[in-house]
Model the fold of this input.
Amino acid sequence: MKFSDETLLAYLEGSLDEAEVHAIEAAVAEDTGLEARLMALDPFAPVVQQVFDDVPAEVPEIDLPAPTPQQYKSGPLRLLAVAASVAVIAVSATFWVTRPKALGWAEQAAIYQSLYSAETIADLDNSPQKLDAQFAQAEAQLGDP
Done:
């Protein structure tokens, strides 16, 4: 079967319907010339080919030392170390997850004021003159709004 360059480009772009895709793939499997033509039209084929050209043909061999029996020895001390590590992680995670959130200034002031009783403020001078003097002092220190 003959395919035009436009049809092969549409195949490469993925804009053909399923029947045409199967026809091209079946023809490429049988005809190496069509495969070469398709690769010549594919703009990414040279890049992919260059990557595969740089891959060595033979895999280098690496001689690793044989494992000694002591490397994989497990005993009660190792088991105890693993258990202790898990316990430390579990306790740390529990403290981290259940830590209280930081209180803002309003919450802290409310906690402090909850300590007040009627006797605490019974002896305060709340006369209008005294309050006006305190407000004037605060305005002088803070500045006028």
